[in-house]
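In response to reviewer comment 3 from the previous cycle, which asked for concrete evidence that the modeling workflow produces usable outputs, we include below a single protein chain processed end to end. The sequence was submitted unchanged, and the resulting structure tokens are shown without manual editing.
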Amino acid sequence: MPTAGLTAATGERLGAGEMVLLLPHIQVLRRLLVAAKRKSLQVVYAKTDVAAGSKGITAFIIEKGMPGFSTAQKLDKLGMRGSDTCELVFENCFVPQENILGKEGKGVYVMMSGLDLERLVLAAGPVGLMQACLDVVCPYVRQREQFGRPIGEFQFIQGKLADMYTSLQSSRSFVYSVARDCDNGKVDRKDCAGVILFAAERATQVALQAIQCLGGNGYINEYPTGRLLRDAKLFEIGAGTSEIRRMIIGRELFKED
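The workflow returned the following structure tokens.
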């Protein structure tokens, strides 16, 4: 369902205590929901008042086995293939009043209240991927020999190692700094967007450099560098794309005195 990126479904009230999530027959809400097949609970955001715009969106807790709700096949993703990501299918799914998360019409607030911290937490993923790239490349360039010596002695390879290392360390320091501020109650939206923007894009580049250092072997699935690249790309998309993160940072800076 191409139009179901952030706007989930349509909700209608049946009475004082019951809502129904309506989607046309056999259409699905398609989102990157990790482990959706195994989770007993899902949070879904639905328009309960179409005329109210963003103020008419409500958050619902959807329980496994609820009539009208099911999960479809596991999606065949480019990367992060170890996680079960699937489509959610709603066919006249009836939701009781007590399954509203927060208040009716406050779904955007529920979603946004945790999004800054979600971006910060997710930023640790690219840091781990960059470390994994170095863990693969450093032993390889010590063992792989050309012209009678390890390729790690060549300046071109050393330059790539330096770029990978500085990308890792700067991203790690950025993550730790923002996390420290958040622990102290100083949650800054532009910093949370900035840290995942920076770390995610660096991770993709570091993974590409890792493939380059391994040469032809980097292009073979026997080595993990291809998987690391595919996994890294997700972090430029999930929890708001890189373009959205840049927009948030620019908007927050524009609002400041």
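The helical segments are 107-113, 115-122, 124-143, 155-183, 189-214, 225-234, 242-255. We consider this sufficient to address the reviewer's concern, and the full set will be provided in the supplementary archive.
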